[in-house]
Amino acid sequence: MVGALLTYVLIFAVLMLVVSAIVWGVATSSGNYQLAIRARTAVLVAVGAAALAGAAVALMNFLLGVGETL
Question: Hey, how many other C-beta atoms are within 10 angstroms of the C-beta on 5?
Answer without folding.
Answer: 12
